[in-house]
């Protein structure tokens, strides 16, 4: 019974870790709610009236969510600096509130400074947020000079409670966050393999659903891998350990994605296109309607389940003779003589299982250390360990790259955004005061918020639409909740805490949902301040719509960055990094020195993530340009396919110095030359459509796989796999040329 309970808790924890990598959303929500609860408890204990309780709750929320730095020491400094900023801001808000013109001019200047402060990194962003939000707080509670001493005390308590929640009750260190992210990676890896295990038996009516699940879980796994890579530097004290983790995470991700492709190919009459796993709504590959009926199908199902267990659990939780035998069996598939009697495509799946098991072993050793019992190792397992040890020993710390020159003056993104939001806020103030001389600041708040974490007119438009939709839904909920709560003060505060937690927990998932919780919470705050009415919440909708419109207008008129321009810039960046990774990997596989390929692959992934985020306005469901939306999705999916093959080439090239069975082949350099040229030609065309570029054509790279071309065994070395990755990359680059308007694509 106790074991069953523990197993249930473990499964629940794994689901939570997979749904919230690193528990970042959970921690943000709990920390904010804890800070507010402490503030309310302290202030209520000394008999503070309800309006100042509201002010304290808002100040605690701002002091908690504004700080985004990863190192606790830096967080403490920023929080300490934030207190005098907050006190100065509430003072000016109370003093200037009665002077309309001067107050408005100062508010615009404050908004400009807060946005411009982003150029100074996380600390500048945090202090700007605190300054703006506390000034907004002074307007919300209608602060006057007479109540300033009391507000100083309230804000001081709020900052002290925020510090207590952050550093004492719910501390979060970079190492702890990284550890939780690694567990999330394991959980998402296990989820992906669980979806892959459904493929062999999925019937014709189920295969499309399973394939869509594969796409979703493959994307989520990659998202977690990127999050880990972004926190390695802060979360580990040793650069060599960080690089080892980076390599092992990349190996596991590539092995898992490749296994899915091999399983699809085993069901199909032909090799599955990598694009199938990256293009949402892509048609089911031909010939995959029938389940796998091969004689080894039962063993395949068994071994997929076993691989999931190995991927999910740390070494200390999977010790035992039975699991050691399972691990040995899976690693044995890396040897040709251990493959079961099956069709060539199904044998490829078993080879993929062996490579995934090796990646699992490397991941376990990197995360948990050498805790496995090696006494039961088979020769195949011993060989895998020796390979991993040799790779670990060969890790070198690369030199720092020369930072790229940043734009200056009006070309600087922070300067442009500051000017845009200042103009938009000025319009919002003027229009907002026409709607309401008391609550005009809602329009300004919306204008401010739609500029946060956006970089193009399209992104601002979509964010404004989502905020308006969430506000409308929140007003409906707020009207109902206000009637339900009535004058029950502490019930209202309890619901406010619930909504704040939901707001922070849902923020990264849905901006519309976050806006809903914010507006519903405000309805309760108005109830607490005895200023609630249905007209007030309807006015909020009007002010929100006005603020969003002012933000979009300012973004479109003042130094505009159109979505097309931004996506083209990011697309060129992705193509440049793709060419860099491909050139470096093939150079190393050809006998040269490829440089820091793992880091280059990470930069490619990050550039692609930036592009994917920037194209959201073009792929949003409300866009009227359906054909363009489909074209953008297709291009992004092709780039994800290219990135997968680029990562795979880089990972294979990294093995070359430590694996005596892998030999460099100078002929690969020739196969790569055309691909890199065509990538650069597409990038040049995107950067300048008038540029005279020409795609090179020639014989298919697949022709190098024909007998007699490269005299090597079919499996057990890299040339065959490298050429297949190059072939798929060549095809994907050729596919990119068509939707991007580059003529003369390479022949197949």
UniProtKB/TrEMBL annotation:
Q: Please list where the region (Disordered) is annotated.
A: 367-389
Q: Which domain of life is it from?
A: Bacteria
Q: How does it sit in the membrane?
A: Multi-pass membrane protein
Membrane spanning stretches = 21-44, 76-94, 100-117, 124-144, 150-170, 440-462, 468-485, 490-507, 513-532, 544-562
The organism named in the record is Streptomyces rubradiris (Streptomyces achromogenes subsp. rubradiris)
- InterPro entries for the chain: Memb_transporter_dom (IPR049453)
Report the family membership.
Answer: Belongs to the YccS/YhfK family.
Q: Where is the Integral membrane bound transporter domain?
A: 428-553
Where it sits in the cell: the answer is: Cell membrane
Cited Pfam families: FUSC_2
Lineage at the top is:
Bacteria, Bacillati, Actinomycetota, Actinomycetes, Kitasatosporales
Q: What is this protein called?
A: Membrane protein
The entry's keywords: Cell membrane, Membrane, Transmembrane, Transmembrane helix
């Amino acid at each position: 019974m106790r074991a069953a309970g523990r197993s249930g808790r473990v499964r629940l924890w794994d689901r939570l870790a997979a749904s919230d990598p690193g528990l970042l959303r959970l921690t943000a929500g709990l920390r904010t709610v804890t800070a507010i609860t402490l503030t309310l408890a302290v202030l209520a204990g000394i008999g503070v009236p309800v309006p100042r309780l509201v002010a304290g709750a808002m100040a605690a929320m701002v002091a908690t969510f504004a700080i985004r730095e990863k190192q606790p020491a830096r967080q403490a400094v920023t929080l300490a600096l934030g207190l005098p900023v907050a006190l100065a801001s509430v003072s000016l808000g109370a003093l200037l509130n009665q002077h309309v013109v001067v107050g408005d001019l100062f508010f615009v200047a404050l908004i400009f400074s807060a946005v411009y402060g982003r150029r100074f990194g996380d600390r500048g962003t945090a202090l700007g947020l605190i300054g703006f939000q506390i000034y907004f707080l002074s307007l919300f509670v209608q602060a006057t000079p007479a109540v300033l001493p009391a507000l100083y005390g309230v804000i001081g308590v709020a900052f002290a409670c925020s510090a207590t929640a952050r550093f004492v009750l719910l501390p979060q260190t970079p190492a702890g966050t990284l550890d939780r992210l690694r567990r999330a990676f394991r959980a998402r890896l296990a989820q992906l393999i669980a979806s892959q295990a459904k493929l062999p038996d999925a019937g014709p009516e189920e295969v499309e659903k399973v394939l869509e699940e594969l796409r979703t879980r493959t994307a989520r796994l990659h998202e977690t891998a990127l999050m880990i890579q972004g926190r390695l530097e802060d979360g580990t004290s040793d650069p060599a350990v960080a690089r080892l983790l980076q390599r092992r995470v990349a190996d596991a991700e590539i092995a898992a994605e490749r296994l899915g492709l091999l399983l699809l190919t085993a069901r199909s009459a032909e090799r599955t296109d990598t694009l199938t796993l990256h293009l949402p709504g892509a048609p089911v590959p031909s010939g995959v309607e029938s389940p796998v009926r091969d004689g080894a199908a039962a063993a395949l199902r068994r071994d997929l389940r076993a691989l999931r267990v190995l991927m999910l659990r740390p070494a200390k939780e999977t010790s035992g003779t039975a699991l050691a035998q399972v691990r040995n069996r899976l690693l044995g598939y890396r040897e040709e003589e251990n493959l079961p009697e099956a069709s060539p495509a199904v044998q490829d799946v078993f080879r993929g299982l062996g490579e995934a098991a090796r990646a699992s072993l490397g991941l376990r050793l990197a995360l948990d250390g050498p805790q496995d019992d090696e006494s039961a190792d088979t020769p195949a397992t011993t060989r895998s360990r020796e390979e991993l040890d040799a790779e670990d020993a060969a890790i070198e710390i690369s030199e720092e790259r020369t930072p790229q020159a940043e734009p200056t003056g009006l070309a600087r993104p922070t300067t442009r955004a500051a000017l845009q939001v200042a103009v938009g806020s000025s319009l919002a103030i003027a229009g907002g005061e026409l709607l309401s001389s008391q609550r005009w600041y809602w329009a300004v708040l919306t204008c401010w918020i739609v500029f946060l974490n956006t970089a193009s007119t399209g992104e601002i438009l979509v964010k404004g639409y989502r905020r308006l939709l969430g506000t409308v839904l929140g007003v409906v909920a707020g009207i109902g909740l206000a009637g339900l709560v009535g004058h029950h003060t502490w019930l209202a505060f309890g619901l406010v805490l619930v909504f704040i937690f939901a707001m922070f927990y849902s923020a990264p998932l849905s901006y519309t949902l976050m806006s809903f919780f914010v507006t519903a919470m405000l309805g309760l705050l108005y109830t607490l301040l005895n200023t609630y009415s249905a007209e007030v919440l309807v006015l909020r909708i009007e002010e929100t719509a006005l603020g969003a419109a002012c933000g979009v207008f300012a973004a479109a008129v003042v130094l505009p960055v159109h979505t097309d321009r931004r996506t083209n810039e990011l697309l060129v960046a992705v193509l440049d990094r793709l060419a860099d990774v491909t050139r470096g990997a093939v150079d190393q596989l050809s006998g040269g020195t490829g440089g820091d390929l793992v880091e280059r692959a990470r930069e490619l992934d990050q550039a692609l993530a930036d592009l994917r985020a920037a194209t959201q306005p073009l792929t949003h469901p409300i866009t009227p340009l359906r054909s363009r939306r489909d074209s953008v999705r297709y291009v992004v999916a092709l780039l994800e396919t290219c990135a997968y093959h680029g990562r795979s080439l880089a990972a294979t090239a990294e093995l070359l110095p430590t694996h005596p069975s892998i030999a460099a082949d100078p002929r690969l350099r020739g196969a790569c030359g055309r691909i890199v040229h065509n990538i650069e030609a597409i990038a040049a065309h995107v950067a300048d459509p008038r540029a005279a570029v020409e795609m090179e054509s020639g014989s298919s790279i697949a022709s190098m796989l024909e007998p007699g071309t490269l005299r090597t065994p079919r499996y057990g070395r890299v040339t065959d796999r490298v050429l297949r990755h190059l072939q798929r990359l060549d095809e994907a680059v050729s596919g990119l040329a068509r939707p991007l308007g580059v003529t003369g694509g390479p022949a197949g």
